[in-house]
User: Fold this.
Amino acid sequence: MYNFGLHVAPFESDAVEGFRLREPANFEAARRACGFVGRSGYAGTPGVRSWGPQVFPRFIEGSGFDSAPSSLSLWADLESLMAFSYDGVHADALKHARNWNVKPSWPPLVLWWVGPHHRPDWAEAVERFEHLADHGPRARAFTFKIPFGPDGAAVEIDRGRVKELAARNAETQADLLAHVRTLKV
Assistant:
């Protein structure tokens, strides 16, 4: 999974402080989530190692920014990623995202399948993201709304399993959710 956005102001500004304050909790919530495999860090930032040089999609051009909020992560399946994305700590951040991010004219994220020993890099992620923006959902690059399976066939997300995973995640992330609910928006 790769996502990309543009903030309404520089990362260090008061305007996106709520995002900045939530970022560590979101990374920790992902680490604790069912089905999380791993994520790329960012070059020059302590912590998790970067999966290659970070690049950005063409949508950054003309924004005045030379970097932007984006993430690259691996998940066991669509249901695990959906349970994390739309419930708990990350859902709290999504609820407030309009305060920190410009309204995009591009997809918010791209999904694709990788082989068991393949770790995508930032360049691959951006290529998939731009492919989705240019061609719409296909097996090569898709979204939760129009998902595909590893075999390239269209699939339906198991919403019951998503709810079960979200409930399991809630048990391991209750402290993080309580924390983010106290933070400035």
